[in-house]
Amino acid sequence: MNGVLSACIDIGGTKALIGFVDSSGNVLARERFLVAPGRPPDELVGDLADKTRSLAQRSGFDWRQVVGLGYSTAGMIDIRSGIVFASPNQWQWQDVPLGDLLKRAFNLPVWIEMDANAAAIGENWIGHGAGVDFFIHLIIGTGVGCGILVNGEILHGWRGTAGEFGHMIVDPNGPLCNCGGHGCLESLVSGPAIAARAAQVMSHSKMPRDDMDSRFVFAAARQGDEQARQVVAETVNYLSIGITNLIHLLNPQVITIGGGVGVGGADLLMGPLRAAVSQRVGSWVDMQGTQILTAKLGEEAGFLGASRLVWKGISKDSLF
Predict the structure, then answer these.
(1) What CA–CA distance (Å, rounded) separates 111 from 89?
(2) How much is the pLDDT for 299?
(3) pLDDT of the residue at 252
(4) Which helix (DSSP H) or strand (DSSP E) does residue 280 occupy?
(5) Is the dihedral of CA 165, 170, 176, 182 positive or negative?
(6) Residue 213: phi, psi to the nearest 5?
(7) In terms of C-beta density within 10 A (0-12 exposed, 13-18 middle, 19 or more buried), how is residue 53 classed?
(8) Domain boundaries, the chain
(9) Do the Cβ atoms of 271 and 155 come closer than 8 Å?
(10) Which listed CATH number (3.40.50.1970, 1.10.10.410, 3.40.30.10, 3.30.420.40) goes with 5-114+300-313?
(11) How far is C-alpha 101 from the chain's CA centre?
(12) Would the N or C end of the chain have less CB density within 10 A of its end CB?
């Protein structure tokens, strides 16, 4: 594989990360830039293709070295047909043939994956889940996502939308979730959910309610603020319920937690979370052998997972 590259794109709500990765997971070039939401599919894909080719040229790569494109994005996706049913980041998109658009624009074999799954694949490749057959990667940030690997392969479900951990209902009488339900985990442990609870109880805070975020809450808790600490404890409680259910259902060897909340509040969350889960799980669960860890790869998890899709797929016919 000397001199052979995978092109990778990980696109989120406001940013895109593009670049090139070799078969050992070494990032050879990368570029991060902002993406405006709601762009027409062909316009966005064309812009991504132009930027990726430009990066290759500036990095001294011959496009003929690139064997495939891995693409990670939020949304409901049929990964076999390459059709995006809907995307929260690109609100105009419905039933978009993204795979075909990417193949034409890049002139490469293309592999597409949902962002949480791609991040799980990346962590399972060279992160803290490396080589683990039964592995779960959680992303806790603006939303709550989950990628599940069983025997080393992503569990997609019937139409590819398995793993919606954020919409596991843990309190039917809880707050309204953006999915329309009540008491989903996302409405209780995401960054906005943490900030909303804190805004209700931290009456002494000088920070405007609309500007409060989870980083402020974690900082206040570290400084000994009792109301902030209570919000953190509630977050641990809700999250421990969800993770206990995952452990009972799927019996993973390793669970990693990433995202802005998962990593940014790790010093406050992880110790109490492990303790709470250990108390909640059934006596048959081997919690000494079940690890709950902070994710290793940060924002590059989905990007590297997109690369891994290419390296696993190049020996087969392209999906698109």
Answers:
(1) 19
(2) 86
(3) 97
(4) helix 266-280
(5) positive
(6) -140, 175
(7) middle
(8) 5-114+300-313, 128-296
(9) no
(10) 3.30.420.40
(11) 23
(12) N
Closest CA to 111 of 121, 120, 124, 102: 102
Rounded Cα distance, 3 and 65, in Å: 6
Structure tokens that stand for 22 in this block: 């070799």
- pTM of the entire structure? 0.91
Residues lower than pLDDT 50 in the chain:
1, 318-320
Q: Do domains 5-114+300-313 and 128-296 have the same CATH topology?
A: yes
Annotation: CATH topology of 128-296: Nucleotidyltransferase; domain 5 (3.30.420)
**CA 113 distance to own-chain centroid:** 11
Strands of the sheet with 144-150, listed across from one edge: 153-154, 144-150, 135-140, 254-258, 291-294
Note whether 148 and 249 are within 8 A (CB): no
Question: Which pLDDT score is estimated for 1?
Answer: 42
